[in-house]
Amino acid sequence: MRRRLLSLLLLLLAPLLTAQSAPQLVPDISARRVDIQYSFTGAQLLLFGAILYPGGRVPRRQADVAVVLKGPVQPILVREKQKIAGIWANADSSRFRSAPGFYAVASSRPIADLVDERTAAIYELGLQNLQLSPGGGAQPDKERRFEAGLLELRHRQGLYAENPNGVEISGSVLYRARIVIPSQVPVGTYTAETFLIDRGKVIAAATKDIVVGKSGFERFVAQTAQRQSFLYGLAAIVLPLLLGWAAAEVFRRRGA
Amino acid sequence: MDIYLPIAGMSVNALLIVVLGTLVGVLSGLFGVGGGFLTTPLLIFYGIPPSVAVASATTQITGASVSGVLAHMRRGGVDLRMGLVMIAGGLVGSLAGAGIFRLLQATGQIDTVIGVLYVLLLGSIGSLMLRDAAQALGWLKPPERPAGRPRHNRWVASLPGRWRFYASGLYLSPIAPALLGLLAGILTVLLGVGGGFILVPAMIYILGMTARVVIGTSLVMILAVSAATTMIHALTTQSVDIVLAGLLLVGGVIGAQYGAMMTTRLKPDLLRLTLALIILAVALRMAVGLTYRPDEIFSIEYL
Fold first, then answer.
1. For the whole prediction, is pTM greater than 0.80?
2. B107/chain A closest Cα distance in angstroms
3. Which of B40, B164, B237, B242 has the fewest CB atoms lying closer than 10 Å?
4. CA B57, CA B114: separation in Å to the nearest integer?
5. Which of B4, B236, B226 is nearest to B94 (CA)?
6. How far is CA A81 from the centre of its chain?
7. CB–CB of A162/A29 below 8 Å?
8. How many whole angstroms from its chain centre is CA B108?
9. Which residues of chain B does A95 touch, with a Cβ-Cβ cutoff of 8 Å?
10. Model confidence over B54-97: pLDDT tens digits?
11. With contacts defined as CB-CB under 8 Å, which chain B residues touch A244?
12. B192-246, pLDDT tens digit by residue?
């Protein structure tokens, strides 16, 4: 009881004491940039860092760490198939204005044990707490159905992941988490957020950006397809003509 | 060996794609079909986004038909005049197809329509060819035909303005082959198929062309229309993956050569039977895919 009172007091005083008493996070990532190249089959990122306690005094009670890697947000339309006259066809659809193209969270303990639902919702901790901004004023049960469908689909594709024991803390001051991104990730700027959580409260947070982009030949191809559509199309026509002709010539010479 | 496809946005097993291209190439050389009816569904089964599969399979059809066209031209197996009429129809058809594609995409029904069309087309053509081949092989008694079956289709013969097509041995209105081309053009855009499996039987049974020039002429038409379709895809959907196309082509053009060499050695009736069975198998697989509960009920479209 006394301890609780003390912590409450500390919490109330926290704004005054921040300079001295709040721990700080120094996060880093194994790569600041993920290059998608011809042999890209996905990547493994190591998100690691240190927890700096004021005055180097490590508290006896170890705080928990949650790491979130979030991809660029996109507006999407989710369609649902239903059996119509014996055939599975798209029937219903629902819009989401801000679905991240990639989302992975790793924590030292299950999110539900770390924070209450409200805090989890504020920091978008956990798949269930993503702010997807469903649009169109649909009925809540339909919205939930589509949200669950979207989460499950992307989870199976490896685009949404949750690892409740993915953060390893050593010596109470160093943490690290491995996050795997599959080959079909969207390109863009990703944010890696690290949260230090103690007694249900986020006591420190830090953010780092990672750029996931196509590079080299892959970048050139993707850009040409968009900016020089006509030339790209021409190349896509000349390529088969040339290859087809070459094969025909080779075989004719051999046969003759 | 994994290779990343820049437009499809995923990595694939390069060797598998090359092998797929080779197999389809052999078939295209053998039967005078573009092979798109196999490439597109197989790419989709592999997990490549349908729009990219359709657009990239089109380039493979171009490549596979080049070698065929050259081979048939040397043998004099191409009716250029007929081919040009069909190409004209095909170009109009591919433009119309692009419009239909957009419309269906906006309503979210493109996948279902593609599936249903595949089943209907492949199913009917496949069974027609199967019956025909079985009769030719003497496994099935041909039905008693009314004596003196007319060589020309009554509808085709009734069209106005007849032209002479010497190489095909025909005197008929260009409207019929142009309409056939139109249909094939629409199918090329919608389904990522060259339409050879429709063109070849239609040219034999409906137009009544001399068998010698049927395959060569259909390949010329497929070559032109698939090239035009590639351009349309590059300009509108921007989903032509040139790396995927290249992988398919490397196998495809070589396979087509072997296929063309095999035609002279194999019994044509057996060939037709085999093609009929392959077509029916694809139709069946698509039908199962439509009626069974799919793995993914939900799908995502980017806005």
1. no
2. 9
3. B164
4. 15
5. B226
6. 26
7. no
8. 24
9. 303
10. 888 888 888 878 877 887 888 777 888 888 999 999 999 999 98
11. 62-67, 70, 249, 253, 256
12. 777 777 788 788 878 877 777 888 888 888 889 989 999 988 998 888 999 999 9
Q: How crowded is the C-beta side of B16, counted as CA atoms within 13 Å?
A: 11
Hey, are the CB atoms on A152 and B261 less than 8 Å from each other? no
Tokens of A6: 């003390």
Predicted-complex ipTM score: 0.82
Size of interface A-B (CB pairs under 8 A): 188
Q: For residue A239, what is the enclosing H or E element?
A: helix A229-255
Mean pLDDT of chain A: 86
- Which of B10, B290, B301 has the CB atom closest to A79's CB atom? B301
The answer to whether the beta carbons of residues B64 and B72 sit under 8 Å apart is: no
Judged by a CB distance cut-off of 8 A, whether residue B117 touches chain A is: no
DSSP code per residue over A181-230:
E-TTPPPEEEEEEEEEEETTEEEEEEEEEEEEEE-HHHHHHHHHHHH-HH
Give the nearest partner residue to A237 out of B2, B230, B299, using CB atoms: B230
> What are the E-state strand segments in chain A?
24-29, 33-36, 43-52, 64-70, 73-84, 87-100, 103-107, 134-135, 160-163, 167-170, 174-181, 188-198, 201-214
Chain B hits for A233, Cβ within 8 Å: 230-231, 233-235, 240
**The two three-digit tokens of residue B238, written as one number:** 């921007």
Structure confidence at residue A7 as a pLDDT band (50, 70, 90)? low
User: In terms of C-beta density within 10 A (0-12 exposed, 13-18 middle, 19 or more buried), how is residue A87 classed?
Assistant: middle
Residue B240 to residue A232, Cβ atoms within 8 A: yes
B65 three-state secondary structure: helix
Test the B interface: residue of A37, A88, A230, A253 with most B CBs within 10 Å = A88
Q: pLDDT digits over A205-231, tens only?
A: 999 999 998 888 888 888 898 899 999
Per residue in B114-132, is it b (16+ CB within 10 Å) or e — as a string?
Answer: bbbbbbebbbebbeebbeb
Distance of alpha carbon B122 from alpha carbon B140, whole angstroms: 21
- Asked if B17 is an interface residue toward chain A (Cβ–Cβ < 8 A), one would say no
Cα distance from N-terminal residue to C-terminal residue, chain A: 97
The tens digit of pLDDT for each residue in A39-89 reads: 788 889 999 999 998 888 888 888 899 999 999 998 999 999 888 888 888
Q: Do B112 and A87 make contact, defined as CB atoms within 8 angstroms?
A: yes
Under an 8 A CB cutoff, do B235 and A75 touch?
Answer: no
Distance, CA of A152 to CA of B300 (rounded, Å): 12
Residue B23 DSSP SS3: helix
Q: Which residues of A touch B245 (CB under 8 A)?
A: 236, 239-240
* Number of neighbouring beta carbons within 10 Å of residue A9: 10
Chain A residue numbers with beta carbons less than 8 Å from the beta carbon of B263 are: none
* CA-based nearest distance A256→chain B, Å: 13
From the list B66, B231, B303, the residue facing A241 with the nearest CB is B66
